[in-house]
């Protein structure tokens, strides 16, 4: 009988250890200081879903099309944190007034969240209907910054973006690369769902 009890105790310890080693699934906006290694920040309340779709706007004579999709369980890494998170990925096409494509990421397969031209969500503000996105910038990280999308209604979002890096040195960035920022800068730019 004692042998059976010991075996059951050992089995209980093994099962408890396996369960406790499994990464935690937490709500999307959990503070990073409150997560453990490889936690999963999941969109449990479907805060990201309303933004999914194709949106268009005309700004300063350019037609901007946003292609917003959701990517579940995306690996995120920084010097301090390593975790998984559900995120929005924003691909875009920008055409001038005669239809010439100035910049497009519509068909880009982004490998990780540090890729050039990537726009991805980093948090939401549910009580304000806002999703906060990080833009990595174009060549040499020019144009990197934060983008705020606000859900106005079922078919319209408002865009707010100002570039943090607008210039760079020739030491950091070769002179022959495109250094233009094509994304529209400003506040309250309205995009309509197509």
Automatic annotation (TrEMBL):
<protein>
    <recommendedName>
        <fullName>DUF6705 domain-containing protein</fullName>
    </recommendedName>
</protein>
<feature type="signal peptide">
    <location>
        <begin position="1"/>
        <end position="23"/>
    </location>
</feature>
<feature type="domain" description="DUF6705">
    <location>
        <begin position="1"/>
        <end position="194"/>
    </location>
</feature>
<dbReference type="Pfam" id="PF20448">
    <property type="entry name" value="DUF6705"/>
</dbReference>
<dbReference type="InterPro" id="IPR046551">
    <property type="entry name" value="DUF6705"/>
</dbReference>
<keyword id="KW-0732">Signal</keyword>
